[in-house]
Design brief:
Shape: globular
Helix content: 25-40%
CATH architecture of the largest domain: 2-Layer Sandwich
Number of helices: 15
Strand order of the largest sheet: 3-2-1-4-5-6-17
Strand content: 25-35%
CATH topology of the largest domain: Dihydrodipicolinate Reductase, domain 2
Number of strands: 18
Largest sheet: 7 strands, parallel
CATH superfamily of the largest domain: Dihydrodipicolinate Reductase, domain 2
Radius of gyration: 21 Å
CATH class of the largest domain: Alpha Beta
């Protein structure tokens, strides 16, 4: 008998996952759930195994009702819904997959028996402290709860974090010890019209309004948003690209797991580039990504909310995406690269892992998706496929996508190759 899957949130990522799950023989039923029932109905009408329901993710019982009998729950909702979805998953007794992590469990950590303020990293940015506490809550509070019901929760399962974490784990097999990891991502799909983001603008701008987090000299620190420029020009790039610090999950995960999974890594950084960064950097410098309300012409307004109101949403429907292609893309490129520095047989070694995947136009031709939807949704689906194929059999508790075994990393990229998502490894 096939498995029943609940997909919570039918935005760019959730809708892409639902389409792939509809083609999977091991899936008997897909429940597509969102507060926006019109968006649900648009997705469901083109699928053969799916039904749609309206769900209020701020109500645990609403999630439980939508997911009754589910074997796997996929969370593609905003971060503030994470606690409710986790609690509903435990009640349903299902496995759990989350495209992101969370910053919503910090109070739970503060209230727990484990909390020890003296042992916490001293971040400059309060958002980083919330993030660190929330990750601890995931591992140490929810981990035992999932172990108790014999189920597994895997979070950070999109493209970044997710695919990039599996690729970083792959790089470790070429080193005896690791000193420094860089994750580079360049969003090189640039439209002819104004379209700075191919995913949620509110998520993108929130990330860009926070200081970045790094693992440096064996401890967690904040680094300046948009700072610490590094330039790279790989052989498939027409020009040199400037990568900048960006608030992202990966350095936190690698720092948490530096010894067991990353060969003693002392430093880890996430570097980002692309139209979205180029758009957001001057806004940040001008103070226009601040959330606090300010008085302007006898009105109190949040600069962040004002800017957000003028940013177009990410296209997710076929006709929306096709309109960009009909106009012609200005640039259809990009990169995802891992640089891992360390020692192999006593020699200084750089392991350079390049992720290859379909671009914007090819993704539409293949699956009627943007390149962002293809890479994130398909990468997320690969973790779903691992659940469906029992590649996590015998595991229970909570892990992040950088905690796969070597055998699971191999399985992940075996499945990825079928979607033309491949790795090119260079040893230097």
């Amino acid at each position: 008998m096939g498995k029943k899957v609940l997909v919570l949130g039918v935005g760019a990522q959730g809708s892409a996952a639902a389409k792939r799950l509809d083609e999977e023989a091991k899936v008997s039923e897909i429940i597509c759930a969102d507060y926006d029932i019109d968006a649900v109905n648009i997705i469901v009408k083109d699928l053969t195994k799916a039904k749609g329901v309206k769900v209020d993710a701020h109500d645990v019982n609403s999630i439980i009702a939508a997911g009754e009998g589910a074997d796997l729950i996929i969370n593609a909702l905003p971060l503030e819904c994470t606690e409710n979805v986790l609690d509903a998953t435990l009640a349903i007794k299902a496995d759990y997959q989350d495209y992101a992590g969370t910053i919503s469990l910090d109070q739970m950590w503060i209230d727990s028996e484990f909390h020890n303020p003296a042992s916490e990293p001293k971040f400059e940015d309060p958002a980083a402290t919330k993030w660190w506490r929330s990750l601890n809550a995931m591992y140490k509070i929810y981990g035992p709860k999932f172990e108790e019901i014999g189920k597994l929760a895997v979070f950070g399962t999109g493209a970044a974090p997710g695919l990039i974490c599996a690729a970083t784990r792959h790089s470790m097999r070429y080193l005896d010890s690791c000193d420094t990891i860089y994750n580079f991502v360049w969003e090189g799909a640039i439209a002819k019209r104004f379209q700075p983001f191919w995913w949620s603008p509110v998520t993108a701008l929130n990330d860009m309004s926070d200081m970045a987090v790094a693992w440096e000299d064996g401890k967690f620190i904040n680094t300046p948003a948009f700072g610490r420029d590094l330039k790279r020009q790989y052989d498939y790039m027409d020009e040199e690209i400037t990568f900048r610090e960006h608030c992202h999950d990966e350095p936190l995960h690698y720092g948490f797991n530096y010894d067991k999974y990353f060969k003693g890594c002392k430093n880890a950084y996430f570097k980002y580039a692309g139209a979205g960064m180029d758009f957001a950097k001057p806004l940040y410098e001008a103070g226009l990504l601040k959330h606090e309300k300010e008085e302007f012409q006898n009105m109190m307004i949040s600069p962040f909310e004002f800017v957000l109101a003028h940013v177009p949403h990410a296209p997710k429907y076929e006709d929306e995406i096709k309109s960009f292609i009909d106009e012609g893309m200005a640039v259809d490129s990009g990169c995802m690269v891992i640089e891992s520095y360390g020692k192999k047989a006593g020699k200084d070694t750089l392991v350079e892992v390049h992720v290859s995947a379909p671009g914007f136009v090819e993704s539409f031709e293949r699956a009627k998706m943007t390149g962002e939807m293809y890479l994130t949704g398909q990468s997320g689906y690969l973790y779903s496929e691992m659940f469906l194929n029992d590649d996590f059999k015998g595991q229970a508790g909570v892990i992040s996508s950088d905690m796969l075994t070597d055998e699971q990393v191999d399985k992940f990229f075996e499945y990825a190759a079928k979607l033309d998502i491949t790795l090119d490894v260079k040893i230097k």
